[in-house]
Amino acid sequence: MQIIQTIAQLKSLLNANKTIGFVPTMGALHEGHLSLVSFAKSNNDITVVSIFVNPTQFNNHEDFQNYPQTLKSDLDKLSLHNVDIVFTPTEKEMYPEPDTRVFDFGTLDKMMEGKHRPGHFNGVAQIVSKLLAIVEPDKAYFGEKDFQQLTIIKQLVRQLNLPVHIMSCPTIREPDGLAMSSRNMRLSPSQRKNAALISQTLFKSQKLVKSFDVEKLKNWIIDNINKNPDLNVEYFEIVDDKELIPISSWDEPKNRIGCIAVNVGKIRLIDNIRYIL
After folding, report:
1. DSSP characters over 95-133
2. Which helix (H) or strand (E) holds 67?
């Protein structure tokens, strides 16, 4: 495994005659990230993983400062998975000058995460477009836990006409159902125990779609989670999985996905669930 910090070094190692699978991360790696690595390794000649905590996607400076950074542990995990190249650039390497680009994703970034974290997705688009241009992968792997982000990255690739396939990979969960997240390690033991109620409530809600209308189901989920004093729902929306437009009736002929953000103390967790009638 080669650990590279500069763009020039990275480009010198990449072979245009071999397929490249790319997994961009912000580190603090868990089994969810490693599942993406496994997908990349099984479908490509070379696997590249980047570790970079991108400052431009944080609208809360405290959140940026507190984001867990565990580089040594991350590298150990990637070495065990036989990753070929790990790209660990500095902020100056990725942003030698301020990135002033502003992306237009229509309504995709105006709701849910975009509404509550202004500028977040523009920062995501800045760093992902930079990384894809540098690595030039055949396939790039993203988890479905960040469903709105995944949808926007697909739109980004279409807008920029980038020759890369964006691969959607399933959410990996803890044994109690909690979606794996780097932020989970910041939870206290009691918060961690209570956080499992998020996914447990979402899974229960799948069984209620035939007896609850959309609005009633949304209220039931929010009320059920908010009953726990450690948890506070920031939003829960049921949207179609292409345009992310909220649905008002189960009769609408669309694939439906429920997306949620919950504050567990000062730690913010997201998750989603599909509704199939």
Report:
1. -SS--------TTTTTSTHHHHSTTHHHHHHHHHHHHHH
2. none
Ordered DSSP codes for 163-225: S-EEEEEPPPB-TTSPBP-GGGGGS-HHHHHHHHHHHHHHHHHGGGTTTS-HHHHHHHHHHHH
231-240 and 256-264 as β-strands: parallel, antiparallel, unpaired? antiparallel
Q: Which two tokens stand for residue 36?
A: 């993406």
Using one digit for the tens of pLDDT, what is the confidence trace for 193-227? 999 999 999 999 999 999 999 999 999 999 999 99
User: Do 217 and 208 meet the contact criterion of CB atoms below 8 Å apart?
Assistant: yes
Q: What domains lie within the chain, and their CATH numbers? A: 2-169 (3.40.50.620), 182-271 (3.30.1300.10)
Residues catalogued as catalytic = 33
Determine the Cα–Cα distance for residues 231 and 185; give it in Å rounded to an integer: 16
Task: Identify any residues that bridge with 49 across adjacent strands, giving them in sequence order.
Answer: 23, 86
pTM of the model: 0.95
